[in-house]
Amino acid sequence: MFEYELHQIRSAELRRQADEARLVREAVRSRRAARRDARQDAVPADDAAARESHTDRRGRGRLQRAA
Questions:
Q1: Angle (nearest 5°) at CA 66 between 63 and 67
Q2: Collapsing DSSP states into helix, strand and coil, what is residue 55?
């Protein structure tokens, strides 16, 4: 009987931890979405493509291809 009660306690604790982790993930997702929306509102449409690419370099890289 004692082992069963320990199992129930552990199971309830794991459920609480899973619920807490779920809430944290949801909060992080909503904060990211809010930041993304705020950033998109602040960036002009023509500059949006440049911001999405993580580099200002265009075309080929610095090194030429070997023959």
A1: 145
A2: coil
Place of tokens 């949006």: 48
**pLDDT tens for each residue of 45-64:** 556 555 555 555 566 667 77
Predicted pLDDT of residue 62: 73
Separation CA 50–CA 22 (nearest Å): 34
Give the closest residue to 11 by CA, choosing from 60, 3, 57. Answer: 3
Whether 13 and 21 have beta carbons less than 8 Å apart is answered as: no
9 within 8 A of 17, measured Cβ to Cβ: no
Please give the biggest Cα pair distance in the chain.
77
